[in-house]
Backbone:
């Protein structure tokens, strides 16, 4: 066998959930896509804002020489200046071009950050439930996840994090607005976390970096404004993308931003483009880098998301399901009415409802519904959810 | 210090050559870009073929719904079918969609392949001189480079490769047309290598995969046709990109192709998209994936490259430099007329000629000239090369 043992294990390890996805795909082909309610993937059906579509036309109609060439690994200066000014406006801190590295999506940005930070055996604290890909990302760089259960309402359990911090802790990774729960950490929660990390970094004589994964930042409801993570702690690196706010997930455009207050600001500013290069990303896609400064302020219409959230949340809670109301992102993470989340999702699938078991996010007994789809499909699914819950 | 020790070492390790690049950049700013002859980077100044420019206009003028959404990690079926048919035409083998995984450039493709193949401690044989990034790529996945010196004319030294193969050998990585030498391995050389790998795989009871990195495949001169690697050995994976043939290096579009004859074909076809996802690439940029089947047969005009090669090759050999005449790619790799390649490159830099010391490619005593630039600049540089060589 030529294949790496670790990857072979990954293929087999994900087989239960993959089998479920494949069965879903088979059903779509057999029954027709409109007969299957696929809430399993966070792949929005909505199109990018008009400003994005127009800017792409402009860029390709009057192509400047050199549009598709290599640029410095960290990205075009104009694009990085633009992102630095966004970060400065948001945080009040003096972000410079060297603090920004354009990346291949937020997943790419997280891998660059982890490559910059992790020595073999280093630990990264994550809050359960969490995006399943994080585990792979840590392992890519010799790191180890230390999952800490969230507190009530999926909020940060500060005491649990304090208990998990040890001499190998290199970073804490948070994701707000959160996938899979949709919760947002408020200013007070972030400040408390920042205070803890300041205290523990001093105690351990070792900088603990707070990595903030924020691709859903622009997708918030009910006039909630997510606080700025750079104002809660000094040693912060932010990872994000335009996948959700500009609906460009397939184009792989994102960035990382190093806090001007990070103790290793200058070294990290050198390390990030080197990691980007040596991991094989090389640079963020050129055309999409040029696009960003042209579409300042543009974002997808979040009203369809809010309508979807309300429809599903109201319906599921009316059926007696225990569910935290999401303030952002486009996921619901209700408690399963039966203990076994895998069995629950199989029963849902038998009714052509595709949802993801909570164990895929490190928290069994729950399930995730993505609601970034046409409202019409959501409406049609409601009686099927009723049938599912009543039939248990 | 928050930064990973390995990355800190990389920053420091590349400092000599980086300092040289930085000095070059300073000179360009101080003296004006036309006063500095920068042959250091393989970043072509030529524009993509007209067909590419037109196809990008078409794609963005009449954007179809879903153009920028996620697709399956391996890429659009249409694009993969198109690549599979190209590979089938070239090799006469029955490539299917599952053998192709669209990637983020060839650097991304190589990292996906290495992630699929390498267990910690596994060795990959490379032929010196070689693209310096390979060492990083191997280390990313716990692997180890085993560099083997090339034979006369930078060709494959089969005996040296045979001697280097051992129980930890997982792959041999070749690059033809070659960076930095411009040489091409012919059919006979590839068949001999294939024969050796078949024999050694059987002896060791372990598949040795031949990884062929071919981004320069379309850039060949003098009517040379590079042979098809898939016809020389069964266990082959090819990595390539559209960076050079379509002049799209900044857009990060490439792919890997698994030989239908590879012993682990099916498993590798599953492993590659999983590795692509878990490494944080997720998928190749969507718009560029759509572009490829629209521009079948398009490639950059290689005539300017040939003119540049001839100008430089003829001039340098007339000055007495020992240089293998490149048959492809856009690099020359002459022997330094003094033993110390770093000192030689510093002397060149003092005359505003920027070239890269051979030690950056694992072979001290040589230097690399990239010639993917305006012929006018090449012409102006010739007297400066004369001054440099005569002044030693």
Residues:
């Amino acid at each position: 066998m030529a294949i790496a043992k670790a990857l072979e294990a990954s293929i087999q390890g994900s087989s239960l959930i993959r089998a479920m996805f494949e069965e879903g795909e088979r059903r779509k082909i057999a029954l027709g896509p409109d007969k299957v309610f696929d809430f399993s993937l966070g792949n929005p059906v909505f199109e990018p804002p008009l400003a994005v579509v127009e800017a792409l036309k402009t860029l390709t109609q009057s192509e400047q020489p050199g549009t598709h060439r290599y640029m410095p690994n960290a990205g075009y200066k104009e694009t990085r200046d633009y992102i630095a000014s966004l970060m400065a406006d948001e945080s009040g801190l003096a972000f410079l071009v060297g603090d920004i590295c354009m990346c291949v999506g937020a997943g790419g940005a997280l891998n660059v950050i982890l490559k910059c930070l992790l020595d073999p055996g280093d630990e990264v604290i994550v809050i359960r439930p969490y995006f399943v890909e994080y585990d792979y990302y840590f392992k890519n760089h010799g790191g180890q996840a230390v999952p800490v259960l969230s507190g009530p309402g999926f909020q940060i359990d500060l005491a649990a994090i304090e208990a998990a911090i040890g001499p190998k802790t290199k970073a804490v990774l948070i994701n707000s607005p959160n996938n899979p729960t949709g919760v947002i950490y408020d200013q007070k929660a972030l400040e408390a976390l920042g205070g803890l990390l300041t205290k523990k970094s001093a105690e351990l004589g070792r900088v603990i970096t707070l990595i903030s994964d924020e691709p859903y930042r622009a997708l918030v409801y009910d006039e909630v404004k997510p606080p700025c993570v750079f104002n809660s702690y000094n040693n912060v690196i932010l990872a994000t993308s335009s996948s959700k706010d500009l609906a460009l997930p397939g184009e792989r455009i994102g960035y990382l931003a190093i806090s001007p207050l990070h103790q290793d600001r200058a070294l990290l500013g050198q390390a990030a483009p080197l990691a980007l290069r040596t991991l094989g990303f090389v640079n963020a896609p050129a055309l999409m880098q040029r696009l960003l400064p042209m579409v300042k302020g543009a974002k997808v219409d979040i009203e369809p998301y809010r309508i979807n959230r309300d429809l599903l949340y109201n319906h599921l809670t009316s059926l007696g399901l225990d569910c935290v109301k999401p303030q952002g992102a486009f996921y619901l993470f209700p408690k399963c009415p039966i203990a076994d989340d895998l069995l629950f999702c199989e029963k849902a699938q038998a009714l052509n409802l595709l949802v993801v078991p909570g164990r895929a996010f490190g928290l069994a007994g729950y399930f995730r519904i993505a609601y970034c789809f046409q409202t019409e499909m959501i409406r049609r699914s409601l009686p099927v959810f009723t049938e599912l819950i009543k039939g248990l």
Observations:
- Chain B has a mean pLDDT of 95.
- Residues 5-41+300-390 of chain B form a domain with the Aspartate Aminotransferase, domain 1 fold (CATH 3.90.1150.10).
- Residues 5 and 177 of chain B are 35 Å apart (CA to CA).
- Chain B touches chain A through 80 residues (CB under 8 Å).
